[in-house]
Amino acid sequence: MADAETEAKKEDGEGEKKFGQYPLIRMTDLPNETKPEIVEMISTTVERNSLDLQNACKLIKEHMDKTYGSSWNVIIGEAFGFEVSYLKRHLLYMFTLGTLGVLVWKCG
């Protein structure tokens, strides 16, 4: 009987771990005025370039340099740690598309 219930849950997708499609912000000190715009731009860029993350990094960096001044850095990947020096109010670390981490920061 338990096997039938387990099979039914598998078919319904119940009990499976599902990742959110929304961005999950882990650490930031960006101003509240610019944060939603930046998060949306990053999420959209990563989704559109999910098969070419190097291109996604390039596009995000170019946009950030153009919009908020130069010296932005971008890292996109899974299972990485970081310790960076950055300008105050210029750091964002978030997850998108489940386990894909995005780190964006500006250095002086």
UniProtKB/TrEMBL annotation:
> Which InterPro entries does the record cross-reference, listed alphabetically?
DLC_sf (IPR037177), Dynein_light_chain_typ-1/2 (IPR001372)
- Which SUPFAM superfamilies does the UniProt record give? DLC (SSF54648)
Please provide an example of a Pfam family that matches this protein in its UniProt record. Dynein_light
Compartmental location: Cytoplasm, Cytoskeleton
What is the protein's major site of localization? cytoplasm
- Domain of life of the source: Eukaryota
The answer, when asked if Chaperone is one of the entry's keywords, is: no
Question: Which stretches are annotated as coiled coil?
Answer: none
Q: Which UniProt keywords apply?
A: Cytoplasm, Cytoskeleton, Dynein, Microtubule, Motor protein
Protein family membership: Belongs to the dynein light chain family.
This chain's protein is named Dynein light chain
Source lineage = Eukaryota, Metazoa, Ecdysozoa, Arthropoda, Hexapoda
